[in-house]
Amino acid sequence: MSEYLVHIIPGSPFSRAVLATLEEKDTPYTLVPVVPGTLRSPQHLGRHPFGRVPVLEHGDFRLYETQAILRYLDRVLPEPALTPADPRRAACMDQLMNVNDWYLFHGCANVIGFQRIVGPRLMGLTPDEAAIAAALPRARSVIDELARTLAGQPWFTGDTLTLADLMLAPQLDFLQQTPEWELLTAGHPNLGQWLARMNARPSFAATTWTRVAARAQAATAA
Asked: 189-200 and 129-150 are packed helices; what angle lies between their axes, rounded to 10 degrees?
């Protein structure tokens, strides 16, 4: 069994960020799939008191919250380094990780992504067009700021991949699969080019919803 156990839900962008980081570190791990309807179960609340994913177990150490997990992995698995050595670039990385959690996900990707992808695919729901329309102004603001920050750089804080890229890409990949993506990124070709670079990386090819779901199914059947 792998030293690293990751409790995830296939398709979760936050779960994917953790898995992609482990893939970038070329480190083996074991998936522990969590059934969405059991997030509030006593068993899962014992792992994550707020009933979310992912959760990392490393030996007798357990950790929740994606940012904390990514930073921990980058400390205990130092190669390749995913945090810039330069303090200003590291601060920009931290800022972007918070933009991901507070502005890109909340009220933006969690609305549009759920209405267009998660709800229809997993629950057979019809998208709520009013909810999507209400989320668009916030989404435009976030996308505009991300495009401004990226500018002409290959990665979000400069010439090297960081934890910020690994957190942002799963959320933006969800949005790319919606009709709203072209509207939001009109005039921002740099975001599409960056996302194409991310999706071309082996770490992202290995952590698509389909591939993770297949691994989770195999883990459940084992």
From this structure: 90
How many C-beta atoms surround the C-beta of residue 100 within 10 A? 27
The answer to whether residues 172 and 191 touch, using CB atoms and an 8 Å cutoff, is yes
Q: How far apart are CA 206 and CA 222, in angstroms?
A: 20
Residues 142-184: tens digit of each pLDDT = 999 999 999 999 999 999 999 999 999 999 999 999 999 999 9
Q: What is the pLDDT of residues 26-47, one digit of tens each?
A: 999 999 999 988 999 999 999 9
Q: At 57, is the secondary structure helix, strand, or coil?
A: strand
All domains in the chain, ordered by first residue: 4-81+204-221 (3.40.30.10), 87-201 (1.20.1050.10)
Pairing between β-strand 61-64 and β-strand 55-58 as defined by DSSP bridges:
antiparallel
Q: For residue 50, which amino acid is it?
A: F
Please tell me the pTM assigned to this model.
0.96
Q: Which residues pair with 33 in a beta bridge?
A: 8
For residue 46 the two structure tokens come to 């014992």
Q: CB-side exposure of 138: number of CA atoms within 13 Å?
A: 18
